[in-house]
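Dear Dr. V.,

Thank you for agreeing to look over these. As mentioned in my earlier message, I'm a first-year student in the group and I'm still getting used to reading structure tokens, so any feedback on how I've presented them would be very welcome. I ran two proteins. I've put each sequence directly above its structure. The first is here:
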Amino acid sequence: MTDFFSIRTTGGFAHLPGMAVDRPTSFDELGQEDADAVVAAVLCSNFFDRPDPAVQTGVRDARTHLISVRSGGRHRSLVIPEPIVDATLAELVRILRRIRNRRPG
């Protein structure tokens, strides 16, 4: 199976349909620098082994990010609500959104 990631963002003050679409991205589609950045952020954030983040209540216009990653034979989907308290998760979201927003279609 091919390693991949996907990120879907919902919520916020405006509905942006392109952000809510789940478009898996194979690591094979990425340049080496992007692939290395994703793998490093996944490892640094302890993505596969960390507990689910606590849901923040009472935060107006907050976005939620659904991230799925398959890498090294492991797979996990994680819902990350804003505000993102953990700096390593915030960096993972930033990297994945940057790559997603550069992709056509």
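The second protein is here, in the same arrangement:
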Amino acid sequence: MASTKKHVIARITNDRARPMIFVLEPWGDVFKMQPSDTFEVLSDDPPVGALDVDTNDRGITVYGWIGSSLSVTRNGRRPPMLANEAAMNRFLTASVPKPRPATRKRRVTATARPAA
């Protein structure tokens, strides 16, 4: 009989002052993470590979290793997933600040002087 014990692989907290999205790949599960939320990434089996975590202005993406079976909980329960792409886009549009205008970078050219 297979074990039903879950292994906690990581605890990830949204330490920002605004909601973010949390994506579990390669399954494409998308969750809304409120400020101060902590999600636990769980595995059905002991980890045999590395867990990659990427962050950006919009959220956090966790990538499972080959052959992994991962799930996410918040306070011991699975958080609700964002329903579809349209809902995710509305959430992102509302929660991500508008980008600032790009600053102009100056190109500086260095010239070498021959040794005397």
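From my reading of the second output: The chain has one domain: 7-95. Residues 106-112 have pLDDT under 50 and may be disordered. Does that match how you would interpret it?

Kind regards,
E.
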